[in-house]
Design a protein that fits this description.
Low-confidence stretches: 74-87
Shape: globular
Strand content: 15-25%
Strand order of the largest sheet: 1-2-3-4
Distance between the termini: 60 Å
Length: about 300
Amino acid sequence: MFLIRAYRTTLPRFGASVPVDTAKMAVSRRVSATFKDLPGGQILGPTFDYTHRLLDFALMAEGEAAGSPPPTPTPIPSPQGGGGAATPQIPHVMSFLNRDGLIETDAAGDATPPDLTREPMELPASRPLRLQSLTRGDEGFILSLAYSTQRGYGRTHAFVGELRIGTVAVEMDIPELGFAVEIGEVELTECETVNQFTGSKTEPPQFTRGYGLVFGQTERKAIAMSLVDRALRWRELGEDFVGAPAQDEEFVLMHADNVQATGFLEHIKLPHYVDFQSELELIRRLRAEAMAQKEAAE
């Protein structure tokens, strides 16, 4: 991985893809823990969440014949009119809370976010840079931090507003053509959490957001990422810093990269003869001085 990362930095970059629109995701799984009935419906999709609850194991032996086909999302009418139906789109759950003004507005700026693969990490980091770091971070590390916030070390009591998995089109602007063309598809897992917030000196009482977006079907990491993202937002929301590890930006971002952590950890098994000899000489000198002082005192 070190070699791949180093080699990537030497390659020319021909351009950047257009930001993916997860509202247009071809959803294979979509669940919400906050609303039972919502437009687009709950789509269980591929999951092992409920297999341990199966009581009649004869149903498993019968195969798919005993089950019913998964529900098909209802196409949303095209906003352009014409009587036809557009490509099925499933709106985000957060949009319904936004209608009542119960959740903070997601401020989306036009500025191009910094690129963690091209620029070194600098602290304090902006939220886009933090999200990039969490996305490429080690799942186990992010999970443990997220669990700590649920146990009280971070003040984030979260509900999964929506968890969705599916494929999205990746498009790229072609200057010669003047419009974007689709160059492929990628599978993503997206999680948006709804968090309690009693207000601060700068913000009124409202629900706040946590966000996670990762490649592939990686629900646990997406949820964990959204919890840690919310914990790191304490400063911009005017909350107090309680000293929780998940709130410490330097601690989280500088230790989440598993490739870097593995390299630094495993390098200590390589020869360190000179370093150890200098440490050995230092200890011997300190012990000799201590013994001399002890004998002088006696």
